[in-house]
Write a structure and sequence with these properties.
By secondary structure, the protein is mainly beta. Helix content is 9%, strand content 49%. The chain has one helix and nine strands. The strands form two sheets. It has a seven-stranded antiparallel beta sheet with strand order 2-1-7-8-9-6-3, with helices on one face. β1 (2-5) and β2 form a beta hairpin. It is elongated and about 65 Å long. It starts with a strand and ends with a strand. The relative contact order is 0.26.
């Protein structure tokens, strides 16, 4: 089970069908001229960013989820899988499509950026 909420709106998808997260490493490597050695500046990676696909049971709930995700909000994601729970903002395109296989459920996909809340 997953719940997305922003304090005003709540989205409860039937399931999260696609989830991907990526963090950019920010370490800096400086080659030293005339040497095989390198000088390294260690920096922490960025907060994760990624994509998510929500499976919604009907067209009305998919449209409502799409509309809610368009707002300027910080969202909270709580799931059965504690490693994906986070605070995030919608950072990229929001897409609503009818599932090609079932022609019954709707998919709402979007890009996200984790934020400190």
């Amino acid at each position: 089970m997953a719940i997305l909420t922003n304090g005003t709106d709540t989205i409860t998808p039937d399931l999260i069908d696609g989830y991907e997260s990526t963090s950019e490493a920010r370490n800096v490597v400086h080659p030293i001229l005339g040497s095989e050695d390198v000088d390294v500046v260690l920096r922490p990676a960025t907060l994760p960013t990624g994509t998510m696909v929500l499976v919604m049971g009907n067209e009305a709930s998919a449209a409502a989820a799409e509309d809610a995700l368009r707002g300027a909000h910080v969202w909270s994601l709580v799931t059965d899988r504690g490693t994906v729970d986070m605070s995030f903002i919608v950072a990229e395109r929001i897409t609503r499509t009818l599932d090609r296989d079932t022609r019954d459920v709707w998919l709402v996909s979007f890009g996200w950026q984790e934020v400190d809340a």
